[in-house]
Each structure stands twice: as C-alpha cells, then as structure tokens.
Amino acid sequence: MILAGGAFVWVRFFGDQWLEGFNEERQAAAETFRQQGRLFGEQTNQQGCLDKALKDVASCHSPLCSVDAGNFFKACVETSAPSANFCASVPAYQSKITEEEKNWARYGCWDINNASEGCRLLKRQQQAFCSNIN
C-alpha cells in the first residue's frame, strides 16, 4: 500500500517532468544518430549502412538501441552510394506485414547470426527504403 501511494505521488508530481526530460533526451539522441548516419553514408554504400546498423543491434537488448540504429540507417542510406542488388531480393513493403515478409526478415537475420529484434526492424526499414516509402 505504501509503495502504491509512493508511486502515485511520484507520477502525480514528477511524472510530467520525467517524461519531458525523456522526450528531450530521445530527440537529441535521434538527431545525433541521424547526423552520424549521414556522415557514415558519405563514406560508404547502402549495404555498408545496413551492415553497420545490423552490427550495432546484434548485442542490443533494449528497444532504444534499435530505434537509434534505425535512425542511423535511415539517414545513412540517404547519403550513401548505391549498392548493386541492395533491393534485389527484398519483398515489396506492405502496410500490414505478410508472412512472406516476416520469413524474409527472420531468415535474413538468422543467416547472419543476428537474433536481435532490432535486426528484423532494420530489415523492415530496408523494405521501406527499397519500396520508396518514407
């Protein structure tokens, strides 16, 4: 009962401040990762962007690092050189993900020994990029 009361007081008086601070922190992190992605993209090709982002999420166990890698990847491919066959075997992006798309991402991640949730999210971003979805 005391714990519940303490949680209520904290949320009531400090929750908005915490949320505002968290949102500001995430916006700053997003811009940092986008900037890093743009700079990295100027030195590599599309496949290099994906490889770097996949490497970054390989040992990731937090949704935040998956989001950070996604911001990096999206900005990186905007400034990178084209890669031959980067979109060759990528299924078309559907707003409601199909079993074919799920299997493509799952097996693509397994093939590179990347079992992180971030890997599948990055594969989904690759689909969006290859289908010209912004």
What does this 3D model show about the protein?
This protein has 134 residues and is mainly α. Helix content is 72%, strand content 0%. The chain contains 5 helices and no strands. It has helices at 2-41, 46-57, 63-79, 99-111, 117-130. Helix 2 runs antiparallel to helix 3, helix 2 (46-57) runs antiparallel to helix 5 (117-130) and helix 4 crosses helix 5 (117-130). The radius of gyration is 18 Å and the shape is globular. It starts with a helix and ends with a helix. The mean pLDDT is 87.
Helix content percent band: over 70%
* Class by SSE composition: mainly alpha
What is the number of helical segments per DSSP (H or I, 4+ residues)? 5
Distance between the termini: 48 Å
The amount of beta strand, in percent, is: under 5%
Got a strand count?
0
Unreliable residue runs? none
Gross morphology: globular
Helix-strand pattern = HHHHH
The whole-number mean of residue pLDDT values reads 87
Main β sheet profile: none
Rg over CA atoms: 18 Å
What keywords describe this structure?
mainly alpha, 134 residues, 5 helices, 72% helix
List the helices and strands and how they pair.
Blueprint: H1 2-41, H2 46-57, H3 63-79, H4 99-111, H5 117-130
Helix pairs in contact: 1-3, 2-3, 2-5, 3-5, 4-5
